Amino acid sequence: MWAWILHRISGLGMILFIAGHVLAGFGIQQLGGDWAIWYNTIYESLYFQLFIYFCVIFHAVNGARIIILDTWPALIKFQREFIWLEWAIVLPVYALTAWIMIQRSLGG
Amino acid sequence: MKPRKVPTPGWNFEYLMWLFTRISGAAMLLLALIGFVGALIMGARYHMDLGTLMRWTFFPNPNHVLNSDIPDIAPWANAYWQIMQLLLVFFGATHGFNGLRLVLEEYIHSWGWQLALRLVLMILWLITLGAGFFLVLTS
User: Fold this and answer.
1) How many CB atoms lie within 10 A of CB A49?
2) pTM
3) Which of B97, B115, B108, B27 is nearest to A12 (CA)?
4) ipTM of the predicted structure?
C-alpha cells in the first residue's frame, strides 16, 4: 500500500515541480522573469533537491517493479520479495546520494 | 449512482496510454543508463561529483554539469545529447501528464468535466513540450 501511495506522491511531485523547472528555465532564458529565478533558486536548494531525488529514485525503481509485474504477471506471487528488493535498492542509493549532497553543502 | 464508465478491451485511448506509460518508463530508464555510462566514458570520474553525475543522468543537459571540472564542454553539448534530451522531454512530459490525468480522473467522474480536464492537461503538456524542446535546442 505504501508503495502505491509513494508512487503517486512522487509522480505528482515530479510532474508539478519539474514542469515548473522547465518553464522557469524557459522564463530565465526568454522572458527575463524574476519569478523564474526565484523558482529555480528554491528548486536548486539542498532541501528541495533532497525531496526531488527521493521522488525520482523511488518512482523509477517502483515503476520498474510495476513494468516487470505487468509483463510477467505470474511473478505476482513474489510481490512481497519484490517490495523488499525495491527498498533494498532505493534506500542505499538514496542514502548515498543524500549523504554526499549534505556533505557537499556543509563542507564545500 | 451511475455505474462507473469502464474502458472496453481492444485498441482505445486508455489502452494506448497504459502501454505508453510502461514503454516510456522503460525507455527513460534506458536513456538514463546510456547517459550515466556515456558520462563515465567521457571521464566523469575525474571531473565531477556524484550529485552532478546524477543530475546529468536524469537529464543530459550541459547546463547541469557547469559546476564541474570538465575541461571541454563540447562533448557534453553535441547533437547526440540533444537528441537524447529531446527524447527524454517527450517521454517524460507525456508519461507525467498522463499520470496526472489518471490521478485527477479518479476524483472527477462526470464525463463533461473529464473532457475539460483532458483539454487543459493537453494544453499544459504542449506548452511544456514546446518550452522543453526550445530550451534543449538553444542551451
Assistant:
1) 18
2) 0.85
3) B97
4) 0.82
C-alpha span between B105 and B108 (Å, rounded): 5
Element (H, E) at B93: helix B79-105
Task: Give chain A positions within 8 Å (CB) of B89.
Answer: 22
CB A7 within 8 A of CB A63: yes
A65-82 per-position pLDDT tens digit:
999 999 999 999 999 999
Domain ranges of chain B: 14-138
CA distance A43 to chain B (A): 13
Residue of A12, A26, A97 with shortest CB distance to B134: A26
Cβ under 8 Å to B: A residues 56-85: 56, 60, 63-64, 66-67, 70-71
Query: Locate cell 517521454: which residue?
Result: B91
Alpha-carbon radius of gyration of chain A: 17
pLDDT tens for residues A90-107? 999 999 988 888 887 776
What are the C-alpha distances in Å from B131 to residues B11, B89, B135?
31, 10, 6
Judged by DSSP in three states, A43 sits in: helix
How far does A82 lie from chain B, in Å, by closest CA?
Answer: 17
State the fold for domain A2-107: 3 helical TM bundles of succinate and fumarate reductases (1.20.1300)
CA torsion through residues B62, B51, A61, A56, sign? negative
Give how far B22 is from chain A: nearest CA, Å: 6
